[in-house]
């Protein structure tokens, strides 16, 4: 604050509206990177950057400037070139973290360091808080809570932003290549549905109406398909008032896409293509993890829920297996089950706890019991199952898809059952959406649908936790 005041006293603007920048630091590096040691160019430039290193030694001062993408360049200020007053001001008023403007000649130092030899300098933006010591690093809590500092000091944090952007851009391009149309659907909703999840509640003053934030984009996207938008998708924020841990966030980003006259197998092709293209955009299809190497080039196998669980526990389990047998298996494997759960719910829980964590390579887990997805259609060949899959990679669900239920009579039965569960205290059960059912009654074409977690896909490629993949994740308030 004192240095800010001194700048003002001397008629120097600590926060000017702009400076006469002629080149970015990256452009200087690209254009003059060939210079030999102690070479001059005669080219005068104006550059800016944040000061991340400074060394003031008598008549010659050195500073390392950094711009947004992490590119760095050395600035040199000598008594002979800038004059006594300007050099004294530099030493007295410039701190780590300041944005400065350097005007001067592009040279290479005696040690071969590409530099700008200043003939003048000015403040571009005065920092009032000191930067952390770059080599000491920040603890995780500070990195996440003050992401702006994390981005300044850590190249990995900046790279995460670019990686995520590349993944999202690739997904859009893949879907556009198949004739999909991107739309936007409401975030504020009268009825929450499209998934089993606990919503956030709010209130719309204009209508004096209680509302929820969306837990999925599904029901509105299906309305669009009913209306004739045969291939439709949305990438958007979802809000679920649930737990927070290394793989879950209350707000997160999903892709949902729906395609008329497709089924779960067509959607598996779409999913595989999207993920492989995203991997190429990031730069690798082979991912090293603490569990082993994931090779996306390998076989993407299909594994049935009941055969997979049977093999894992050494007991044949079918849709007819009794709850008593399933509860014994749960007890034996240390899987907690609730007294009110039916056999379908127990099977889903057993598979998720026992089998899913072991699936390192890409695996489409399919042939689920109906309780897994109230919006999926019955299996075309096998009674007691639905046409749905979850894609497991690295022991974690990354996305899901199904052959969509389009029969409005059966859909009504399932949503009525969901509303009964909600009335009985199930906070995750869907509400009965009469308008959605009305849309289906106008006739929805057969369709396949996909749900893909963008955050979890970025987690796969970067092997980072969800708090690292979300630029500004939700955190508890700071104390004090």
Automatic annotation (TrEMBL):
Required cofactor names: Mg(2+)
Enzyme Commission no: 6.1.1.6
Residues holding Mg(2+) 2: 397
UniProt keyword annotation of Iron present: no
Compartment(s) where it occurs, according to its Swiss-Prot or TrEMBL record: Cytoplasm
Coiled-coil ranges from the UniProt annotation: none
InterPro entries: Aa-tRNA-synt_II (IPR004364), aa-tRNA-synth_II (IPR006195), aa-tRNA-synth_II/BPL/LPL (IPR045864), Lys-tRNA-ligase_II (IPR002313), Lys-tRNA-ligase_II_N (IPR044136), Lys-tRNA-synth_II_C (IPR018149), NA-bd_OB-fold (IPR012340), NA-bd_OB_tRNA (IPR004365)
Entry's family note: Belongs to the class-II aminoacyl-tRNA synthetase family.
Protein name: Lysine--tRNA ligase
Organism of derivation: Arthrobacter hankyongi
Organism taxonomic ancestry: Bacteria, Bacillati, Actinomycetota, Actinomycetes, Micrococcales
Gene this chain is encoded by: lysS
